[in-house]
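PT: before anyone asks, these are the final sequences, not the draft ones from last week. 949 residues across everything. Please model them as a single complex and drop the result in this thread when it's through.
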Amino acid sequence: MTGTLGESAVASSDGAPGAMGAAADAAPAADAASTAMSIVIVGHVDHGKSTVIGRLLADTNSLPDGKLQQVKDLCVRTSKPFEYAFLLDALKDEQAQGITIDSARVFFKSALRHYIIIDAPGHIEFLKNMITGAARAEAALLVIDAQEGVRENSRRHGYMLSMLGIDQVAVLVNKMDLMGYNEERFREIRDEYTAFLQGLGVEPAAFVPVSGVEGENIATPGALMPWYDGPTVLQVLDGFGEVHADLELPFRMPVQDVYKFTRFGDSRRIVAGTVAAGSIAVGDEVVFYPSGKKSEVASIETFPPLPEGSAVPAVRPTDAIGFTLKEQLYVNRGQLACRAGQPSPRVATRLRASVFWLAREAMTKDKEYLLRVGTLRVPVWLEEITRVIDASTLAAIPDADRIGRHDVAECVLRCERPVAFDIDAELTETSRFVLIDDYEISGGGIVQDTLIDDQAWVRDTVLLRNVKWERGSISMEERSRKYGQKPALVLFTGSADSRKKDLAKALERELFSQGRSTYYLGIGSVVYGIDADLKQRAPDSLHQNREEHLRRFAETAHLFLDSGLILVASAIDIGESDLALLEAVLDGAEIVVVGVGDKDATRGFAHLHVPEIADTSDTDVHVMRACALLEQRGVLPKG
Amino acid sequence: MSGAAAVPGGVMEREPLPAHLKKLENTSVHIMREAYANFSNLCMLWSIGKDSTVLLWLARKAFFGHVPFPLVHIDTAYKIPEMIEYRDRFTREWGLLMVYGQNRQALDAKQTYPDGAIDRIACCKSLKTQALKHTLDGSWPRYRFNHELDRYEVDANKEPYNGVIVGARSDEEGSRSKERYFSARDRGSNWDIAEQPPEFWSYYKTDFAPGTHVRVHPLLDWTELNIWEYIKYESIPTVPLYYDRGDGTRFRSLGCEPCTTPIESPARTVDDIIEELRSGRLKNVAERSGRAQDKDDGGGLETLRRDGYM
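LR: through. Structure below.
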């Protein structure tokens, strides 16, 4: 099939030459021939979407040669009255079921431009197909049957359009012929549906009374509704604007990957992703969230490479780009690249969100789901349901403890670890997420706000520290090369009377004699200096200040690690939540935990376990095991 | 950009892409990067035709001159010889990880349409669909190009590919208009059209139960015209078979020699083809009209596609 958008083609299995037909106009301008505006047509089942499309195709001469006659002839042969909807069916292969099950695409053109009409299924069973179709559109036509009036899916589809972020919507009140072209009926439906859309914050571009069957107000103004002096459907379509990205928004790019392909002697390390908002250029400072690490953009990479000295085209939203950094930061997929000096994104573990649910099995509080926001994937739980709304009525479902299929809800989600995103009111593009249940995209949502959690303060401190950190002139890679090691915290933990300190010091000695740069720090040693104020407040016990004590220890460790050293430390009874705090402060750095003594105390998070034996003759063995572990984790070079 | 000096492809002075092609390119690159990030054993089908060659070019764009996964070609042994020459030339020039598969049993037993043993559809199923299925799942030998020895040899890697990037376009025929960018096939390679996953906001289904494999369609939104426009702007090398070389005919779609016929067309250059497509001169000629198996399948290709034909 020819299938150029410049012609009236329908993605059809028809295979007959007729299906490729086109209006025999002169060749249109290059861009017009290839670009088209995508419009989705939605609404309740049987409200006449296919008829409206059939009419649009027929009345704009967009049908393949002879198709109209062919379908009319078929109707005569099968003794069926001709319907414009058959045209669409004839161009698709869904006649068997009589209902649209998936969004199919139809091409047509007006005098102004070319269109791709996405015919979305109206049947509730196929809501996810409707969403898939609608999500690809720049504008929407929502069809309401004048006789039946506003029905569940009229509302549900309206709701979904607003959730998906399709702002350009026109409402067609169809089948006006069945209501004697009665103005009163049109007004009733218009007023009812306008009120509904207002509740969603959607302002429709127009309400058009139409008759798909008679062609009234579809492509040409009708004579049968003299009381209506608004635009036809075609005029409404031509009046829609192309969606242009706002270039003034802050830069956002979810990192898709960091590429380091070494074939052909390529030494570039390229941060790749698709720009969600804003722009970036060589020399800009880029900050990665949630860590807050920053560096300067050294180059914007392209393929094929541009000639030396020629300017890289300006980066625009939706561009799939790649850039290199001046400093080799630890960046990976899932982080959000932003620009320094622009509004920063939110970082949180708890968020308030609007969610729509598509899966058969309801979303419940006792189950772990997967949240995908940007390129990040993180386990998530439904912590609280504020309210569940039946999207077909907008009525709240009382005392709902689950979000059922096709429901919409306001709720609180709790993520396993901090996530970077924006909130809807600030930057919609990066506030959108999906929820995965059992491998399937089961719901979608928009973050409305962030909520506080236990480690929010520590995290905020670290974020600010990273953003404000003034780096010296020596990069981490240079230090690593010089010292022949990667920085790491090797933490020996166990009960108070375990021999963790002896083992830690023995490791320090071994590393030192191997020529490594290392330092031993007992957590108790920071108490009298760095923690002096804490000690003064609670002379007998640091327990009530444990978190702050640990945070300060971790900040101290961060300095050692940032200077490229292997810090060997010992601490009493470090637990999983303590480790989470250390990880938050030392974000991304290598932490190796050696459990000494009681195996159960560190089960699940210690990388190595050393039994508690009074005899110290086996110390060397355990030190060697620790060294092997450090080699294995890339802290020490192999061999 | 000194770090990239040796990447094959050369420096290129070029006009910026028109907005509509840039948009298509962006989406395709994004999809390809998503595929690469999510599938441990990814490959891309390269039929040597214009669509999958654009796909290959987009992969080099996405990965800055590299193609970090194997390209798989199903060699029916009846392909037009120039296609194979072209394949091996660019395998060498671009340093591609090239793999081909073949239904050796059927060829050895002469169980093919050109041998007169079976009809066209059965032949397609055997030499293409079966060969593809067994090449992808690793149960038949894969022949991989060894760049040092400059020849193909049996590939030691027999791991099934769990992600397959394919150059299908939704405007090609009906069944393809309902495809998703990421489309799951179960163990039996079955495709459930009505129960497809939702795709919105650039989120695609990239989580899969073990045993399923996924077809990735970065070119879904492209039309035949877009393909040629892109080939022009990016100066992508294509097989000469697409152009009239003096006899007033050219191939519009490439397949096996016995079942593919050229169309009447005087188009000698990419510009001529673009002009031909825009003018509507080909409006009554289906893109795959030169492919005899489509007609034998009653049009639509749906029987072949359900079965795993691409």
